[in-house]
Write a structure and sequence with these properties.
Elements lengths: L2 H21 L11 H4 L3 H26 L4 H15 L1 H12 L4 H21 L8 H24 L13 H11 L1
């Protein structure tokens, strides 16, 4: 892949994500300009979206665990929710294609990706030490809990939340404590 094709692929993927966020219907936006030329089929596009979700989720988990290292599971749940709020269209597409894959290849790919995502959630939450079927089961419970909490807060929210940002680092926290004292 040349630099130009890599750059074009990124632009098309950003356009796909913007369309998915606007629609939020769970359908792959194959009608976006450049999709047919950039992605071979629905499975390739879905794989790219799944990778984007996974990397964003991993980044959010890392940030949450840095800011709240004592409650790992709460950090993982918060990270999952933040990622779902940030990529609602991508999450809808992943959910739809996990429930109703277009073919056997997509079903197999979605099973593998779900298992890996769930195992990562369990390991990062400190509930498992290995990426295996048990970890995937525990991670699925964590994802379900995050999804349920997100749905209940979304339904209960009547307006935008105005929360003060948390200090970004341990140094900022120490400065805040020393200033308050």
């Amino acid at each position: 892949m040349t630099w130009k094709s890599f750059h074009n692929r990124g632009e098309v993927l950003r356009s796909v994500m913007a369309a998915a966020d606007a629609r939020r219907d769970g359908h792959l936006p194959m009608d976006v300009d450049g999709v047919a030329e950039t992605f071979a089929d629905e499975l390739t596009l879905l794989g790219a979206l799944q990778l984007r979700w996974h990397t964003r989720l991993a980044g959010h988990i890392e940030r949450e665990l840095m800011s709240e290292p004592m409650d790992l599971e709460a950090g993982v749940v918060a990270a999952w929710q933040a990622t779902a709020r940030e990529l609602p269209g991508v999450r809808a597409i992943i959910d739809r294609h996990r429930q109703a894959p277009l073919d056997a290849d997509m079903a197999a790919a979605m099973r593998v990706s779900a298992g890996k995502e769930h195992a990562m959630l369990a390991v990062m939450a400190g509930r498992s030490s290995a990426s295996d079927e048990l970890a995937a089961s525990v991670g699925e419970q964590i994802a379900d809990r995050a999804r349920a909490a997100l749905a209940s807060t979304s339904a209960a929210a009547s307006g935008p939340k105005h929360l003060s940002p948390a200090p970004a680092s341990m140094v900022d926290r120490l400065k805040a404590v020393l200033t308050a004292a």
